[in-house]
Each structure stands twice: as structure tokens, then as C-alpha cells.
Amino acid sequence: MMCYQCEQTKGGTGCTEIGVCGKTPEVATLQDLLIYSVKGLASLAHHARTAAGIEDAKVNTFINGAIFSTLTNVNFADDRFVDFVTESRQLHAQLSAKLAAAGVALPASASEVQPWFGSMPHPLTWNSQAVALGGVGDMLEIGEQTGIGARQVALGETLAGLQELLMYGLKGLAAYAHHAEALGHTDPKVYADVQASLHFLCSPAAADVGQVLDQCFKAGATNFRVMEMLSNAHTSTFGHPVPTSVTLNPVPGKAILVTGHDMHDLHMMLEQTAGKGINVYTHGEMLPGHGYPGLKKYPHLVGHFGGAWYRQKIDFAGFPGAIAVTTNCVLDPLQAYKGNIYTINETGLSGVPHIKADATGHKDFTPIINRALELPGFTAESVEKMPKKKNVTVGFGHNAVLSVAPQVIDAIQTGRLEHIFLVGGCDGSEPQRKYYSKLYQYMPTNTMVLTLGCGKFRIFDQDFGNLPGTDIPRLLDMGQCNDAYSALVVATELAKVFKTDVNSLPLSLDLSWFEQKAVAVLLSLLHLGVRNIRLGPRLPAFLTPEAVGVLVERFNLIPANVSDPGADMKMMMQ
Ligand code: SF4
Ligand code: SF3
Hints:
Layout: H1 25-52, H2 57-68, H3 78-101, H4 123-128, H5 136-143, H6 148-182, H7 188-200, H8 209-238, E1 244-246, E2 254-259, H9 263-273, E3 278-282, H10 293-296, E4 301-304, H11 312-317, E5 322-325, H12 335-338, E6 341-344, E7 354-355, H13 366-374, H14 380-385, E8 392-394, H15 398-403, H16 405-413, E9 419-425, H17 434-439, E10 447-452, E11 475-477, H18 484-497, E12 507-512, H19 516-527, E13 534-536, H20 545-555, E14 558-559, H21 565-573
Parallel strand pairs: 2-3, 2-5, 3-4, 5-6, 6-7, 9-10, 9-12, 10-11, 12-13, 13-14
Antiparallel strand pairs: 1-8
Helix pairs in contact: 1-2, 1-3, 1-5, 1-7, 2-3, 2-6, 2-7, 6-7, 6-8, 6-19, 7-8, 8-19
Bound molecules: iron/sulfur cluster and FE4-S3 cluster.
Pfam family, one: Prismane
GO biological process, one term: response to hydrogen peroxide
Keywords: Cytoplasm, Iron, Iron-sulfur, Metal-binding, Oxidoreductase
């Protein structure tokens, strides 16, 4: 195996024997084969759309879901990838039949052989070949030829890495699009863009650095559209988030913990547990759920439990109820809680029950509810013994922040607010990430900080006080990683007031990345021309110094100075 798609990749170069995340070589190889097969399916779907006007809703949904399943910390179950590859080839056959029925020939590109696929044909052709795929063994043998290795040999590390930058950005945006789709919000252009990009990665144009970079920024543009669509999906379904105080102290009673990013699943869980005497808690990136009027109205959504994803083995082992995993980040479970955890959607863990949606999209959470009723839940005694924590406040989406914009603008104009920091993105376990915890210690009191993503867990329970002369908290959490959209809406509105552009505002972006959703957000920011972004704790292993040089030159991308947060703070204040 060779995987370097996330920030914690081994030695900062690549996981080759087993993933730092726990991904086995088998799962890594099956994921490579799935991505290869999906590139072929997407190429066919792109051709069907552009040559024959054929739109296949099943194919559209499948492609986004399948590539979402290969995101870091989503799915570790080899049998699920066997199913995904099988389904990809079945959908390919069905779409081919539709094209044949319409009298449309396959694209000429199907016979092209791109050197970066090594000994493998164009993925579209492979999908159509009568290859005997008896099961895992056959797939592993073929999958070994579809990894990054052949691309690095044929294209060199810089170009192969830039192709991966595009692929990882697509994984992140497909994940966000899939969330929006769960809430009934879709956009034909998004499916078309994703598939055109996957088709591009199979075309001769993908051997040109300039064209690959352009395609990356196009993916950034599509992701911005997707984040807007997801924001609208959330707010039109659950209302605009409002500032909400959330307790971190459990209450006595049976309990279910919902982790991941999927608000639709949280809603379904709240509906299905209503009146059953079960309390529902959020975990990780579900915390912002408490700010939505359509979710906070449920009295049995009682609080938040635990910290960022990488602490989940401690948090889940200490949770006396059932655990529902809606999306990333999930880790291979400890025996201590393996019998209590359930996966949903694209997530998967070997030996852990998986809840599938029915044809209408409904998910029956009865097994999770029954398990929660069997387990003890929090008892009055156990709660009594737990150290008491302060509440945290969530719910500062763009609507809430813009409602206090006149006060913020006045504070900037009168010098009471000198600078705004956007410290967003992912958390992780590496020691270098202490940089983000320490950064806040150097922030002058006449500054504000906007957080989003699970990186917030480094400081979410600290009291930063209010902006001088106002009742506006200095720390405003804007939500999940995809709520980078909200931050950009606020920045754009401020720029309008000050008759300038986002780059000229007293605003610094210091982003912590970990997985591919963060890659998609970064591509969106670059597409929008946002400059001077700090990125850390380490730069992506898939970007060579040459590729980083291009981004530094065009956007003044700045590697975070993890060993000296004070120096970074000084530079940002200038
Ligand atoms: Fe390694 Fe990250 Fe890939 Fe897991 S996802 S194998 S940790 S690079
Ligand atoms: Fe976190 Fe996994 Fe990226 Fe949505 S939950 S930000 S890492």
C-alpha cells in the first residue's frame, strides 16, 4: 500500500505497511481499485451527459457516496469496498446499456492508454471488461496495480501529487454534496463537475501541470457552490443557527451518542428516540447541531460528550450508551465498546453492524435504540462523581454574526477591535498541533477569533470574555468544517462595508488540516483568491516543494510556524 492523503501520514511521506489511521493494506488496495473504477464510471457518465443528454440519478448519487467512503477515517471494512466495486461495475453496465439503446457509441477516449494507469487500461474500459471478480482475492490482485505508484513513475512526484490534490479535493466536496443530498438538496452542475473532473484525470490533459492546477481551482469553485448548498440545506431544514449554551455534563438516563457530521441523521435519531426515555448527546463535529432551532427544540437533545475525534477511544469507552457513527472521523473500535457502536451511511468498521437506508432514504435506528435501552446509561451516582464542566456556546453561523455586524464594524472603526482570526479546520493527535492551543495565548484582548471544524476542541471550553465595550463574545464558533462558507459570507460582507477585498481586511486565516474535506475547503479559498493563508501543522505530503512553490508564489500560502506560535501571531497582527 501507499497512501499519503491525510496530514498524519507516516513520517510525513506516506503510509506503506499499515495506515497510521489503522487502514489495512487490503482496505487501502480496495480503495485504490474503487477510485480507479469510479473514474471509469464517471467518464462514462460524463460522456452520457455531454453526448446524449443522459442523466443517471443512481450513478450520480453512487459516485459521490463511493468516493466519500475512501475519505480518511470513514470506512475500514473490506467487505464494504468489495460491494462498492461490484456496484460500480454494475452501474457501469446499466449506463452502457442505456447508451447503446440510445445508439450512442462509447467515447474514443475509452481506447486511450494513459501511462499513469500502468499496465491497466482506461478505467472506463476496465469497468466494461469481463474480468472475473470472485471476491476480495481477485480485487486485491488487480487493485495493486491502481495505486499512486504507477502515477508517480509515469508523471513524477510533483504532477502525480497535483493529480492527488484534485482527487482529494473531490473526495471532500463529494462528502459535503452527499450531506446536502441527504437533506434533499442537489445540484445537477455539481454532479456534472465532479464527473468531468474524474474524467479529466483519465485524459491526456491530466499530464499537464497547468491544466491540473486549473482543474483544482475549478473543483474549489464547485466546492464553494456545494458548501453554499449544504448551508442552505441545513438552514432551510432546521433554521439558522442561534447562539446556544450547551452543557458538557451528562444527565442521568439512557443515552445515545451521535458522532460525525450528518445533521439529517441526528434529526432522524431525535425523532425516533422521542418519548422513549433516551437522552441524545452530540460528539465531535455534531456539536454545532445544538444551535439549529429545528434540532434544539427536542428536549432529549441534552448535551455534548467528549472532545475531538482522536480522543474517541477514551470517550466512547467511557460512554454508557449506544454510539451512532454518521461520518468521519471513526477509528477501529476497542473491545470495550465494540458491542455498542453502529455505522451509518458510507462509514464502516469490520465486525460492527451497519444501518442502511431504505429506498425512501429512511434509516431504522431500532437496533441502536434497543442497545441504548439495554445499556445502563448515566446513573445519578456516576454523574455525581464526574468533574463539573462549564457550558460552551455554539450557533454563530453567518446569520447570527451578521446580526451583530454593526457593533463589530463600530469596534473596528473605533480601534476597539484590531484584528479577527479565523482558526478553522481539523484536529489531530500529533504534538505539533499544540501550536493551535498555544496560539490563543498570544492573541491580544482587542481581537476576536472565529472557529470552525473539530480544531475548535482545543479551546472551545475556554472563556475569552467579550469584545471590549460590547456583549459580543470574543470567541465565536461558526460550526462544522463546511461552515467555512459562513465565515466567507461574513468576510465578504465586512469587505463590502469597508469598500475593500477580503485580503485587505484585518483578518488572518490560520487553518489546520487533517483530511480531504479540509483540502476541498482550501481549494475553495484559493479559487476565491484568498491570500496569506497559514496552513499547518504540516504541509501535505502529496505536494512536493515544487508544487508548494507554485502556491506560495500565486497565493502567498504560508506554512504555520508550529515551533513558534508567538512569532506567527506577531506576523498576523502586522
Ligand atoms: Fe495513512 Fe492517512 Fe492514508 Fe490512513 S488515510 S493510510 S493515516 S495517509
Ligand atoms: Fe474533524 Fe475528522 Fe476534519 Fe469536519 S472530524 S473537521 S478531522
